[in-house]
Amino acid sequence: NTIVEESSVLSSSSSPPNVESDGEKDTKNKTKTILRSQFFEWVSKNFAHPLSGLNDGGDFESAIYYERDWRYTRNMALRKEAQEEQNKVNNLNCKIEHQIFSSKCKQSPNSLVFHPYDPHVVVATKDYLTVWDYQSSYKLSQWKPDLRNHNLDLSYRSAPHLSVVELINSHDVSLILAGYNDGNIQVWSQFIDGPPKLVSGWHALPICKSPSFESSSMALQWDQRSCHLICAGDSRVINIWDIETETKLTALSTGVNASVTSLSMQLKGKSSNTTNKIFI
């Protein structure tokens, strides 16, 4: 009888000692979330694009890509604002009465160009290239290009000097294109964020030795759409260059024994295959 009673007592107990019920076990096994991560979302977005063979500009998560996307949006807003300002001038509702920038150069400026989107102006004197912020009147950079590779074998001419400057690729990462009276061209980068870096340089225009060519200057015209550069100056030809490949596309004869002092191009249509007109 005693054994039977002990068995009944054990069987009637709700649970053995030191054994947790299923409900209590589930409650204690639940852990609180301490850190929240977006790793899964990042992996899904990052590996959704092919990254093999792409540079930083093609990586949709790179800083360069975000910078270019911001620059594109900024440029669109500036073009819209410029169109509104132009309409005010056309309607005679705007007066130009205020001087916003004034600076004195050590040498007389031979050429200058305004950046279409940033408040910068690039000034080329005889020996120096200078970049100014015309809103704050702050000199961003100034340097003297190296001319050791320039050879001007003309006894009646002075030493090689800067005669014209252009801004290329201004909608993205801008480059400065400097032209010299001896027919040479230099392309500079990093003239805002760091020491200027010479990207490329070549002899773009043959110089005539005849005394009738005595302007001692160079004329440039840049076409951003086709990435073509038109060069003229103390020469009987006008050379057209492809900047991306640094190859000469064609040479046009001026038909006169005189220097070209000014150069302009009329664009025809929006296609790069259309014919453009060159005025000298």
TrEMBL record:
Q: So which domain of life are we looking at?
A: Eukaryota
Q: Where is this region: Disordered?
A: 1-30
Q: Which SMART domains match?
A: WD40 (SM00320)
Coiled-coil stretches are none
* One GO BP: regulation of autophagy
Xref: SUPFAM superfamilies: WD40 repeat-like
One term under GO cellular component: cytoplasm
GO molecular function (one): protein-macromolecule adaptor activity
InterPro entries xrefs: Raptor (IPR004083), WD40/YVTN_repeat-like_dom_sf (IPR015943), WD40_repeat_dom_sf (IPR036322), WD40_rpt (IPR001680)
Composition-biased stretches (Low complexity): 1-20
PANTHER family tied to this protein: REGULATORY-ASSOCIATED PROTEIN OF MTOR (PTHR12848)
Q: What is this protein called?
A: Regulatory-associated protein of mTOR
- Which organism does this sequence originate in? Sipha flava
